[in-house]
Amino acid sequence: MGLNVIMMGPPGAGKGTQAGQFARERGLPKISTGDILREAIKDQNPTALAAKAHMDRGELVDDGMIIAIVADRLRKPDVKSGFVLDGFPRTVAQARALDELMERLGLGPLIVVDVAVPDAELVRRLADRRICSACGMNAGPQDGNACTACGGQLVQRTDDDRSVVLERLKVYQQSTTPVLEYYRDRPTFRVVNGAQTPERVAFDLNARIDDAAAARR
Q1: pLDDT average, residue stretch 156-161
Q2: Range of 40's domain?
Q3: What's the CATH number where 17 sits?
Q4: Active site residue 208
Q5: Active-site residue among 52, 90, 96, 124?
Q6: Is 190 noted as a catalytic residue in this protein?
Q7: Is 125 a catalytic residue?
Q8: Is 75 annotated as catalytic?
Q9: What does the alpha-carbon distance between residue 180 and residue 169 come to, in Å, rounded to a whole number?
Q10: Per-residue pLDDT tens for 32-65?
C-alpha cells in the first residue's frame, strides 16, 4: 500500500520545504501543481497548454483543467509506492475528484497533514523573507544583504508586503478551510504545529504520518 500524503498549510508555513524533505527521505515523488504544469507543458500536454493560455491571460485555471493535469501525473508509474502532494487540492471539488481518482487508480487511502501556524507568525516570517534581485534565490534575514549564491542584492518580495500577506492569508483561509473540513473527520487526518523549529516540525511530521499510516490499516 502506497504512502500517499497531502501536505497542507498557509503561505509561509514551510510546508513546501517540509514536503520536499519528507519526500526525499522516504524516496517518494513530491508533486506540486506548479511542477506538474511545467512538466506537462514541456511534454506538450494539450490540457496543460490550455491551462497556460488561461494563466497568460491572467485568468484562473478552472478545477476541471487542474484535476485533469493531476490525474495524468498520478497515472505515471513512479507513484505506485506513494507520493507527496503539495498545493493540491485547493477546493472541495478538487478533493472529491482526487478521492474518485485514487479509488479508480487503486492507489490506496490519503494521509492529510495540516501544517498549522498562527497568522502573526506567518506575517513575521514572510516580512523577513528576501529574494535575490539577480538570480531569484530565496533567503532569510540571517543571510544579510547579499545573495550567497551570486552576490546580488537581497530585496523583499513584492507579495511579502504586510498588506499583501494579510490578503493572501485571507484568501487561503476562505478557499482552504472548507477543504480541511472535508478531510478533518478522517482517521488519517493530522495537524502539525508549524510554529516550531524546522527540525522539530520535521520530527513531528514524520511521527504524525507514521501514526496515520498505521491507522489506515
Answers
A1: 63
A2: 3-215
A3: 3.40.50.300
A4: no
A5: 90
A6: no
A7: no
A8: no
A9: 15
A10: 877 777 777 787 878 778 877 766 776 667 888 8
